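Quick one: structure for this chain?
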Amino acid sequence: MRRLLLILFTIAGVALGWRWASRHRSLPCPTWAAWLLDNPFTETIAGTETTLDRIGLRPGQRGLDVGCGPGRLSIPAARRAGPEGAILAYDVQPGMLDRVRRRVAEARLTNVETRLGDIATDAGLGAASFDRAWLVTVLGEIPDRAAALRNLYRVLKPGGTLSITEIVGDPHYQRRSAVISLCQEAGFQPANYWGTALAFTQNVVKP
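Got it. Here's what it folds into:
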């Protein structure tokens, strides 16, 4: 119990400082704070398996993990996609991608690729090349959210799903109404929604 309380207080302190800094500049979670994305508290309110269930990734599909961080979702997503599927772990920070590559090697997975880039401006991703894409506590970190969502619309296949998860207390938390509005402007249609007092997942679909 003491350990959990210490984790909670530490997360709260870092989050407050991060929120203050983010008022002046959109800041992704720094590599040294990757544990904030992969810890017992995060797992309790937005569990990996539950989040992947909501994303709906199936064997043989291609998934795009935008703002993948240390790979909390990328690794289990790759196992769900199976050898016929593939996961692209995508991030703006080389240090995060280094962590993903280490975890991929440890897990002996062959269906995970990594890519460094800015999803708002990256024209190198193939059009209509992914079945599923997801942003888990990432949308608010992107300075040009409208451009990012337009690009995600471009790279998803027709009928493809974009899944957005937001957690209360995250320095860049986005309200559901804002998420839906931005996604609709990009061309998406609202689909499944799951919500609790602490977190929600909103899926949207490319027609």
